[in-house]
Input
Amino acid sequence: MGTLIAIEGVDGAGKFTLSSRLTHAWEAAGVDAVRVGFPRYGESIHADLAAEALAGEHGDLAAGVNSMAVLFALDRAGAVSDLRRMLHRHDVVLLDRYVASNAAYSAARVHQDADGEMVEWVRALEFDRLVLPRPSAQILLDVPVEVAERRARGREEEDPSRARDAYERDGGLQARTAAVYAGLAASSWMSPWFVVNGAQADGEQVDVTRLAAELLNQTAEYDGMTR
Output
């Protein structure tokens, strides 16, 4: 059975860059790793509806915090069979966003903390009712919101197809989401968390080879206690 690891952080934190570097580090060490990104835009009707809503379509759908959370949750639920199959075939399944993303953004939208009702509602929805596999570890890319915003804006300028959505353009929401993420990591929500300096995630300062090894060592201990 493989190890499920999720990378979390606000938009522009550098999740894609770090996930790619970690995957390459594991492959270089002979570890069979595969990467999956959520939401699955272009593959999942639920993810596409959420993206369209955040772009201003479908009336007031985007205004409903629970409604949007359900769409993102159903996107992941549609991938459960694939995730379980990957966990049987690969040593590591690395996720670019997972359930904590839904918990953090939803809680931030209703101005709640990591220990609020919204986080618990998302946990019960995705892990209890939709029976998503629990991660063995989660990585938080801790990055100043202004740095993440600058990256997201630059990405939009370079590639018009990656225009920022309503969440990404809301600086206040991004700041509140970062605070919820910090609370989730501090409480070891659903698994052990590793906090990485997101401002350096795309630079040479992050020892990705060491991080990759530490993740496998500590998740092996955690899995041994929980399975």
User: Anything to note?
Assistant: The chain has one domain: 3-226. Residues 150 and 161 are 17 Å apart (CA to CA).
